[in-house]
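hiii, so i know i said id send this last week but things got crazy w the move. better late than never?? heres the sequnce for the chain we talked about at the cafe, plus the structure i predicted for it. fair warning i was half asleep when i ran it
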Amino acid sequence: MENSRFKFRAWDKPLEKYIDFKEFRFMNVEFTFNPITKEAEIEYDKERYIVEQCTGLKDKNGKLIYEGDIIKAKDNLSWVVVFKNGCFFGKLGTRYEPVFDLVNYGFEVIGNIYENPELVNNETQAKQLYDNKIQAKEEQ
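okay and structure toks below
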């Protein structure tokens, strides 16, 4: 499901890489829409893939920002983009700031939590991200 309004990407855990979402769509993925609640659902192998949605925002270099991206500020603090309570936030330790506000201060995407967990400047958060990545790999 990729159009001008919604963009997604998929992290393939066993291959340890992002796959093109157009390719992902044809890998036993089922899209359903409930006309009563007007909610859409994606059914896919959640053990293998992590689907991340685009925020619709771009960094200072014009790169689209997705869940799981690590964005860096001029002060060298690195924030992880998360989706919480229906909104996209930048997470720094236990602090949350709306991504929209952060982007207005000239942030740029420097990596993501799967390929570059070491870029998270909060040591505890970086360790947790790395441990989660290892645990997911071991569960395969």
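btw The first strand starts at residue 8 and ends at 12. thought thatd interest u
miss u guys!!
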